[in-house]
Amino acid sequence: MTTVQSEENRISVADGLRGFAIIAITLIHSINHFNLSIFPESSSSISNWTDPIINTIVTSVSSGKSYGLFALLFGLTFYLQLSNQEKRGLDFKYRFIWRMFILFIIGTINSAFFAGEILVLYSILGLILVPLRHAKNRTLIIISILFLMQPLLLAKIVYILFNENYTQHFQRYSPHELFSELAHNSFIDMIRANLTLGRQVYWLSIISNGERIFQSLGLFIIGLLLGRKRLFEQSSRTNNFWRETRIVALISYLVVSVVKYQLTRIIPSGALHNMIDNLLSLWSDFTIIIFITGLFILIYSYSLKKIARWMEPIGKMSLTNYIMQSVLGSFIFYGYGLFLSKYCGITSSFLIGLILLFLQYLFCIWWLKHHKKGPIEQLWHNLTWIKKFRFA
Q1: How many whole angstroms separate alpha carbon 165 and alpha carbon 366?
Q2: Are 232 and 297 in contact, with CB atoms under 8 Å apart?
Q3: Residue 363 sits in which domain range?
Q4: Which of 132, 156, 223, 374 has the fewest other C-beta atoms within 10 Å?
Q5: CB under 8 Å, gap of 24 or more: what pairs does 56-63 form?
Q6: What is the tens place of the pLDDT at every residue in 159-173?
Q7: Rounded to whole angstroms, how far apart are CA atoms 76 and 369?
């Protein structure tokens, strides 16, 4: 969730994509109660009908794709910042490492409100871009493919094929112990639970199969490549590239979906079934991420910008909005605040998410009339360059 260093070098389509990702993340976190899985028993015939529909649509659009878009844009922003500094004869390497340290601190603060946040992970994984910043394109393509193939997950699948008694020995995210802490305790207890139990379970989930780690690394590198090849800038070459890429992505999605459907029907439930399903879902998510990116390029290329430009203010302040939704979401759904999770089903939680987005949008419009960057973006910028804090 990075911002481009120079206002003149901003790429509107990237801001639109960030805005789209923030919208998707806010909605899926809202219907999931920010990982507090407590829901009332539905007594409304309307919600019994709308809940599964909303859950399917939001999950299909957001799950695995929105954070993937951020990872791709993370790599793009790294390239833009690197290029800006090298044009001035400066080495961005150590400044970027310092920048990631600041992001780590920001992410740690954010995790006190929402244990499933992504900034800490990105601040660590993002360091891989430093040694790869001047690698040849061919090298970057090979490395990104290796990451996106999910080597750890593939290795486990091969292992299970020869060891039928294999079982997964980790607890998936948001155990009941954490639910209890988030639902019934005070603000201080909520922070303690998120920073201890919440982060412990989150990292166990992240590391177990390495899915998000490898997916993020691969997308970081692809974002770097796209920036290097200037494939976010408007040109006939860019349009031709994305036209072909959208077709390939769509065909690949259909092929992966058919293979996934057939294999998951044949393979009985169990560890092997789950891992193959995860692997093919990750590959499917990747094709959708690329297709969505290409779709936004199309929208911005053919005078259709009004369809997506309203998302740009949200995207320009993506870091602020991401942290704001964690703070407000925890207050709305957790026990220390309004505790609406015990009253709101998926449909009502979805509506709360829309209201939250609308308020964020109004705040972004107002703030950007007076400042070039969002408040947390400005703070991150000033700390990166060791400047006295002031709003631009």
Answers
A1: 58
A2: yes
A3: 8-35+50-384
A4: 132
A5: 58/24, 58/27, 58/28, 58/31, 58/350, 59/28, 61/24, 62/24, 62/25, 62/27, 62/28, 63/28, 63/285
A6: 888 887 766 655 444
A7: 26
